[in-house]
Amino acid sequence: MPRPNNIQAVFFDMDGVLYDSMPNHEYTWIHSLKEYGIDFPPEQAYMNEGRTGFSTIRMAFEKYLNRTASKEEQEAVYALKTKLMSKRPKAPLLPKMQELVQNLRNNGVQVFVVTGSKQPSLVEKLSANFGVRKSNIVSGADVKQGKPHPEPYLMAWKKSGIEKKNCLVVENAPMGVEAAKAAGIYTVAVNTGKLNDSVLQNAGANELFGNTVDLHNSLSR
């Protein structure tokens, strides 16, 4: 499947693509779930990135405790994770991503962000750092089914009004790649985390880059 010749819309994941925020997510998942007796392996934060928060909590309880998390437990774990995240260092922007987003926009390409996060500061942060409007964001609060279900990317695609053959997704997580591929959109993976390249390739990525600088150089016009 060749890369679209006439890219008119790009859908970016957020954590691990625009921001180097996955180390913070790794830390907060490990420590919020530890409160409930779950020894959450660090790589699982990357394998499950893109899920909604409550979906990740349900998965962790089923996988490591062999039981279903109650609604109260899900809310408590998520509240603790949010609290821990508020105390973490501010995640830096990944190299050359501001430049890439601006370059695409200067060339008339629509830019969207598709993320499983639903943190309150999301819209303000993306607007300040990348000039992305609220209307061009699909968050965990907007969807009924998060990644790896295609709903998030299908929702962004419908917002764009662009033919799929002229759209492209940038992801860093296997579940995000699966979601984008299930939505029928050409998918570029950038491996900014701890996973082997093969995990992203096996998820169906059409292209793979080892860092955001190489991604910028490839997609800039």
From TrEMBL:
The keyword Hydrolase applies. Keywords: Hydrolase. GO terms for molecular function: hydrolase activity. It comes from the Bacteria. The keyword Hydrolase applies. NCBIfam families: HAD-SF-IA-v3. PANTHER family: FRUCTOSE-1-PHOSPHATE PHOSPHATASE (PTHR43481), GLYCEROL-1-PHOSPHATE PHOSPHOHYDROLASE 1-RELATED (PTHR43481:SF4). This is HAD-IA family hydrolase. It comes from Carboxylicivirga marina.
